[in-house]
Amino acid sequence: MGLVKNKIATSLLGFSGGLPFLFTLSIFQVVLVDRGLSIESIGILGLVQLPYSLKFLWAWVFDRYVLFKTNRKNEWLYLVQVLIILNFLYLGTDPSTIQLILGFFTLGFLSANQDILIDLFRIETSSDKEIGLHSSLYVLSYRLALILVGSIGFILIDQYSFSFMVRVFSCLMVVGLVGTFLTGPITTTQKREYINYKQIFNLSFATVLLFLVTFKLGDTFADKLNILYFMDLGYTKTDLGVLKAITSWATIIGGIFSGAALKIIPLRRAFYIFGVLQLLSTAGYILLAYLPYTYWSLGAIWSFEKLTAGMGGVVLISFMSIKSKELGFTSFYFTLFTSVVAFTLTTLSAASGVLVEALSWQGFLIVCCIISLPGLFLVGRVVTDSENYDKN
Questions:
Q1: How far, in Å, are 20, 108, 281 from residue 174 at the CA level?
Q2: Number of DSSP helices (H) and strands (E) in the chain, helices first
Q3: Residues 6 or more apart from 359 whose CB is under 8 A from it?
Q4: How far apart are CA 60 and CA 194, in angstroms?
Q5: CB 230 within 8 A of CB 243
Q6: According to the model, what pLDDT value does residue 3 have?
Q7: What is each CA distance from 278 to 23, 46, 71, 215, 295, in whole angstroms?
Q8: Do residues 338 and 112 lie in contact, with contact meaning Cβ atoms separated by under 8 Å?
């Protein structure tokens, strides 16, 4: 019964984690446009999402300190979630533009902290064998929250007002409080009072980081400009809009499938299987140029790419979760891993346009396949059965 309750809690908390994220991204921009701010100003204020990238700097606080000497996770989660609800209610009072911007910055900081705490719960209450399923449940409910905010949220703003929409979503944050209530006590994996930085500044840790980045590198490069590639092949914006709505669900299906598969497949073997499938899906983009212009051609290849992206994403999150627990300070190491991967992939993929101009689309996609190989090679060096799979 406890395992079932943890899975329900993971799903509810994932939904709670996804709700504020889109507010600090697209909702923030729309509201500022309505307030008359320039595009230049709004671009700079995109720094509201900076806490998501820098959260590893203070994540250790949740590993190190408790509030009332009882269950640190519940205490911190309740506090952060209540503050998010209060922040939503404040934004709904129609404050001045400066106060509104400060409110969104506060929301970004609180939301980043909620993500840290939800990951802490998900990792420390899951066995190595269950962590893949927990990760997929979290990702699924997180994405559902994004879909809800990105669709119903904009409709509510347009038909009613931003203030009304914010009040509605502040009520939905109660889902997170229920998830926190359902979480059971956790046994910390913290092995020492302070972080041992010798674990970070060594070749072994650098190899882990290199693996985390390279495993999704080719897939990320290919996905960066795929819309422009499809348009260059003759597909219209309407074609892409319809197919994107359909194929987006393939990512969710891939995540669910990989989460279930990790209950029976050792993580290292899963990396090889899903990594090869990722490589084949990138190669499918090359094949698309030689197929007839039809919905079926693009739909099948795009869906396959989304499916394998979901598989690869969950298996990567599972490994980062297990490795973080093994190293001791779960929150610190997991946020460090995710921040390094996100920053590096975003930075490197910025060069994708330059490569297309220099090599053509076909040459660029061949490079994407080639740069997928180092990640597969490093699986055997970084992921070992003894550290990632509970055979019992």
A1: 13, 18, 39
A2: 21, 0
A3: 366, 367
A4: 9
A5: no
A6: 65
A7: 31, 31, 40, 9, 22
A8: no
Q: What is the distance in angstroms between the CA of the first residue and the CA of the last residue of the chain?
A: 19
Tokens of 12: 């509810």
Let me know: does 314 contact 258? Beta carbons within 8 Å: yes
- Residue closest to 119 by CA, chosen among 342, 323, 340: 323
Q: State residue 387's pLDDT score.
A: 44
What are the CB-based long-range contacts (under 8 Å, 24+) for 336-341? 336/56, 336/59, 336/200, 337/209, 337/212, 338/56, 339/53, 339/54, 339/55, 339/56, 340/209, 340/212, 340/213, 341/212, 341/213, 341/216, 341/316
DSSP 69: S
Q: How far is CA 266 from CA 54, 280, 324, in A?
A: 32, 21, 18
Q: What is the pLDDT of residue 42?
A: 66
Q: Are 33 and 57 in contact (CB under 8 A)?
A: no
pTM: 0.82
Contact 255, 349 (CB under 8 A): no
Non-local (6+) Cβ contacts of 364 within 8 A are: 221, 352, 355, 356
Triad 318, 269, 267: Cα angle to 5°? 20
| Predicted pLDDT at 192 | 53
Cα pseudo-dihedral 246, 250, 256, 257, rounded to 10: 140
What HEC string does 294-311 produce? CHHHHHHHHHHHHHHHHH
* pLDDT (0 to 100) of residue 390: 43
pLDDT at position 66 is: 76
Cβ atoms 132, 318 nearer than 8 A: yes
Q: C-alpha angle with apex 326: 381 to 20, nearest 5 degrees? A: 105
Spans of the chain below 70 pLDDT: 1-3, 39-46, 69-73, 184-194, 196, 385-392
Res 391: pLDDT: 41
Cα torsion through 29, 32, 33, 34, rounded to 10: 130
pLDDT digits (tens, 9 = 90+) for 65-75: 777 765 566 78
